[in-house]
Design a protein that fits this description.
The protein is mainly alpha-helical. Helices cover about 65% and strands about 0% of the residues. It is built from 9 helices and no strands. The termini are far apart.
Length: about 250
């Protein structure tokens, strides 16, 4: 690979994360500002719940573990795990074990969700074109993620320690000192996976995934709502038995 191509690759990986991040931030703001009523998952549980009852927990809990795994692998420096006595071999073993289980669970969940949407007429009708593209990109991200887990650990092909290339590159983005040269040194499989992930982030604000930014945190501190049946209420508590008040 000549110097010009290497320089072009470094510049690409220096710029493209900020492009994706800008689209994510501006798109989310635009969606919230001009499409508040569309800020929803457009729940289809009313149409079908049997498959959803299995697919949704598989996808959401699996994705939660996948996200935690990415945070550990990308945010925590290798020196920290070395300091607690975790060798590179042990790290790769736990990454394969947990990453494979979580990835397969998430992939199974989204496969069932797609099957449900395709086989159920009303559910399929409620699926937008953007959502169909999102499903395709998300599946590709999961498949390539599983592949890079196996490739990086040495289970398939030569071992690659992504915590010396991809992870430092990821951290350098957030301190505004991008190291595209590190990302350029990673194998092609990692390039493909990261590009698909950046594409997914750019699509995020324009699909049902935007509901992830609307976690119902207020549920933890809102006052309780007490429900009582009409038959258990005292006669003077019933609206119909209260004296009429003047006015409207």
């Amino acid at each position: 690979m000549d110097a010009d191509s290497v320089s072009a690759g470094e510049i690409f990986w220096d710029i493209i994360p900020y492009v994706s991040l800008a689209i994510l931030i501006v798109g989310t703001w635009w969606r919230y500002r001009y499409d508040k009523f569309g800020w929803t998952t457009r729940s289809s549980q009313l149409y079908e719940s049997k498959v959803l009852r299995i697919a949704s927990p598989l996808f959401h809990y699996g994705m939660l573990v996948v996200i935690v795994g990415h945070i550990i692998g990308l945010v925590i420096p290798e020196s920290w795990t070395d300091a607690i006595g975790m060798s590179q071999h042990v790290y790769h073993i736990q990454a394969i074990a947990l990453g494979s289980i979580a990835g397969i669970a998430t992939l199974t969940g989204i496969a069932l969700l797609i099957y449900r949407r395709r086989r159920n007429g009303p559910v399929f009708t409620a699926t937008t074109r953007n959502d169909k593209i999102m499903y395709l990109v998300l599946v590709c991200a999961l498949v390539t993620g599983l592949a890079t887990t196996l490739i990086g650990s040495g289970a398939i092909g030569p071992e690659h320690n992504y915590r010396e290339t991809v992870s430092p590159w990821f951290r350098s983005i957030w301190i505004l000192q991008p190291r595209g040269d590190l990302m350029a040194q990673a194998p092609l499989s990692f390039h493909i996976h990261v590009m698909i992930a950046l594409t997914l982030f750019a699509l995020w604000p324009f699909t049902r995934l935007v509901h992830a930014f609307s976690a119902p945190l207020s549920y933890f501190y809102r006052p309780y709502i007490v429900y009582r049946s009409r038959s258990s209420a005292k006669p003077d508590e019933l609206v119909g038995s209260r004296p009429r008040r003047p006015g409207w």
